[in-house]
Specification:
4 helices, flat
């Protein structure tokens, strides 16, 4: 006997949108809408480097790629922890050799604990020069917005609608 289950009503949680959430979406838009531009300086975290990379464990080659795009980010563990940090400071056209070890508990059991000798040549360095968050920026987003305030309002509305839909489901 289910009783009067039809009388039970549950109010969905309040779908509030914070200023931090809106700002995070704005930063993502700003990054995604900005093209990569050539950088006349050494590689820095967050850049987009094009590299030729070769690596071996002494016995066999484990990687050999030409023209590979690589975005060094602090703490990035791909292809191996410390690789991104080794690229920082290398200039376009410069090569660098270094050895790194895969962690003993690496999910790839074939590589776990192995030391790899890398040879990397940076062939290109690009960066993003992010625009200021202004009314002019807002006019270039999507179909365009009259002001930055209008864009923020639209973002908040969309975030609220998504939160309400998630709460309902």
């Amino acid at each position: 006997d289910l009783g009067a289950y039809q009388a039970i009503r549950i109010e969905p949680p309040n779908a509030e949108v914070t200023e931090e959430q809106v700002n995070a979406v704005l930063e993502e838009l700003r990054f995604n809408l900005t093209p990569w531009q050539p950088a006349d300086r050494p590689v820095q975290f967050g850049d987009l480097a094009t590299i030729d990379v070769a690596g071996s464990d002494g016995e066999k080659s484990v990687i050999d790629q030409k023209g590979a795009p690589y975005r060094p980010l602090e703490g990035l563990t791909v292809p191996v922890p410390g690789f991104a940090e080794q690229l920082v400071g290398v200039e376009k056209g410069q090569s660098k050799e270094f050895s790194l070890s895969y962690p003993a508990d690496d999910p790839n059991k074939d590589m776990a604990g192995k030391s790899i000798r890398f040879s990397v040549t940076v062939t290109d360095v690009k960066e993003k020069r992010l625009p200021d968050l202004t009314d002019e920026f807002a006019k270039g987003v999507g179909d365009g917005y009259e002001s930055l305030a209008a864009l923020k309002e639209k973002i908040a509305h969309d975030l609220r609608a998504r939160a309400e839909a998630a709460a309902r489901s």
